[in-house]
Structures are given as C-alpha cells and as structure tokens.
Amino acid sequence: MTINLRDYLILCKPRVVLLMLLTMWAGMYLGATNPIPWWLWITATIGIAFMSGSAATLNHIIDHRIDAIMDRTKSRPLATGKLTVNAAWTFAAIQGMVGFLILYFWVNALTAILTLLAAIGYSAVYSIYLKRATSQNIVIGGLSGAMPPLLGWTSVTGQLDPQAWLLVLIIFTWTPAHFWALCLHRYHEYKKVSIPMLPITHGIPFTKFNIVLYSLLTIACSLLPYAIGMSGQLYFICVLLLDTGLIAYALKLQFATNDNKIALKTFQYSLVYLTGLFLVILLDHHLMVN
Asked: Are residues 194 and 220 in the same domain?
C-alpha cells in the first residue's frame, strides 16, 4: 500500500468503522430468522462501510483546521497537507454514492435511507453544528454513531423492530462517557481549540460525575437483552463482568487525583467493553440458535 492510499484509508477512520461493522453484524444475526445469504452479508457490509467512510472523511474535512492544532489529530492527512480538501471531498462523494447505491439496489431502500440519515447526522448535524454549539454535542450527536445495529437489523428484515432499537440504545448510552473520558485525557487540547466539550464548559468534577451516571445507565441498558429473552445466560454472565469493569473505571476516575492517566485507561476500557459486549451477544445468539 502506498503512502497516498494509506492517507485515504486514514480519512475513513478504519478502526471506528470496524467497530461499527461489528455492531452492524450483531444486528444482522439477531434480526435474521433464516440463514443470511452470503451476497446480502457482503453487500450490506460494503455499503455501510463505504457510507461510514464517507461520513468520516467529511468529518476530517470539517475539522481539518482544529485537527492541525490538537496533538491527537495534527498528523492526519488534511491537517498535514498530505491530501488536499478537494481530493477529500471527491473521495467522500464517491464513497457515499457507491455505498448508497449498493444498499438501495442490493439490500433494501429502508437500510439505504437510514444509513444516509445517520451519515448526514454525523458529518453535518454533529460535526458542523452540535460539536461547536453545545456541551451536550456528543449526547445528541451520539445517535448517529449508535445506528449500525439497526442498519444491520433492517438489512435482513426490511423493517424497524423494538429489539433493534434496544441495541441502538446500548451504544447511545455508552457514547457520552466513552468520549468524555477522552476529553478529560485531552482536556488542554480541547480547551485550546475552544470546542465546548463538557469538561471545558462545566468543569472536570461535573464531567467525572456524569461519566459515572452514564456508565450506570449503560449497565442498565446492557441487561435489557437478557431481561426480554433476546439473549441467554452466557451473555448475562459475560456482560455482568464487563459491567463490573465499566463502573469500576468510572468510580476510579471519579475519585482519582491523576485525572489524565486514569481517564485514558477509562477510555480504553470503554472500547474493550463495547467490543466485548457485541462479540458476546453474537456468540450467545449462535449458541442459542444451535
């Protein structure tokens, strides 16, 4: 892979997209009542991946000036000038159009439209407006990033079901604490670029308290699949272990004196948490079916 191709790949935020695809696959398999045709699995995966990559690229374009200021993002292709904004716009447009057409013609119209709305919500509503307008930006804007399980569900069912929204709810409640932990770790960088994240507008103690509250809310939502019979005992036991780690890190951060170090560990564990939860719900569903 050449350096130029790698720069384009970076624009797609591949690690974020891969986690989104994992949650999308969970939605597919939990929503399916029959074996999923291989062509449907491939087209849904490619279509959603392309549209997610398009939205991520648009986020790079919108944020490229502040990315150049922050240490975490200053090496991104647009911030360093390795790629031009025009090239990024073209790349985003091609990804978005190809992804939408794949979903519309080879999956179903509902999934194509919902994926488009999620992409617009992230790249336009969140990145352009909410991120710079309110400290609740990640709470409101987090809905767009929580949509992949629903997209996977609709790709095999063609309809909106309550169980799919439950999977969305888990990610929706998980997102704020996950991102606020990163904001605490990068507090001075966000302060430097004047982005109104919660630690900047309401202070570090208030943010740490809200991380605890949202962690508790995430834990409550994570138990709902078992409560409604959507998952079995394997999921229940494993998610309890994951939940224990989640609240342990949140409480450790709440009472920590070294906010920066524990905030990073809390952020990293939150990624392990969500990945583990959706891997376990997939495994549990496979064992229940078989």
From this structure: yes
Q: Is 138 exposed, middle or buried (0-12, 13-18, 19+ CB in 10 A)?
A: buried
Instruction: Provide the H-helix boundaries in the chain.
Output: 3-11, 14-31, 38-67, 77-80, 85-106, 109-120, 131-133, 137-145, 148-157, 162-185, 187-192, 198-202, 204-222, 224-227, 233-254, 259-289
Output the pLDDT for position 131. Answer: 87
* Cβ within 8 Å of residue 50, ≥6 positions away: 95, 96, 98, 99, 102
Q: What pLDDT, on a 0 to 100 scale, did the predictor assign at position 195?
A: 86
SS3 string, 140-181, reads HHHHHHCCHHHHHHHHHHCCCCHHHHHHHHHHHHHHHHHHHH
User: Out of 81-85, 102-106, 187-191, which region has the weakest mean confidence (pLDDT)?
Assistant: 187-191
Same domain membership, residue 11 and residue 147? yes
Write out the two tokens for 157: 């069912």
**Which residue range(s) make up the domain with 189?**
161-290
Tokens read off for 9:
């790949």
In sequence order, what are the residues at sequence separation of 6 or more whose Cβ sits closer than 8 angstroms to the Cβ of residue 123?
54, 55, 58, 59, 62
Q: What is the pLDDT of residue 290?
A: 66
Query: Final residue of a domain: which of 158, 190, 210?
Result: 158
Length of the chain: 290
Determine the Cα–Cα distance for residues 257 and 266; give it in Å rounded to an integer. 14
Digit-coded pLDDT (tens) for 41-54: 999 999 999 999 99
Last residue of a domain, one of 105, 124, 158: 158
